[in-house]
Amino acid sequence: NPGTSHCDEAENLNIPQDHSRNNIDFELSPSASISGRVLGEDGQPRENLHVYAQLPGCDGQWVGGANTDENGNYTITGLPEGGVIVHACPECYMCEGNDCPERDFVGEWYDDVLDCSDAETVPTTIGQDTPDIDLTLAPAGRIEGQIVDEQGKPIPNIHVQVQAPACDGFQYGW
Hints:
about 30% strand; extended; 5-stranded antiparallel beta sheet; single chain; mainly beta; 4-stranded mixed beta sheet
């Protein structure tokens, strides 16, 4: 489907190995952007933290993301006209093993909420930046313990997650 911005509506191109196809042109539309800063409650900037935007609603399509700089600043470009919801995501680090930074704060949705269904929609306008979409992250708690069998022997490789008290609550951590 030419002219779509949704991947599920795009035309598939099957190009056999060792072949090429010419004249595949794209026309890019102007876009909107948002920008802001991510701080801890201590006022210190949160560096290299992923912030992303999605269309409104908890099941909204992801439309862009960026990492914060050393001052906690971020800008997400390429956004559609209308509005997005924004999440500062400490659990979205792309890392492995011991290279992962400590997750010492709780992610949040703009404006200061934990659940995506409560997130405020940030208006976006083509050709303009919506500034000051700032997020302040609270320190995270920590739960530690050991999973044991009936004889008190440790059980290895058990996944534990924490979520809101309701069974359908969203996941807080793991």
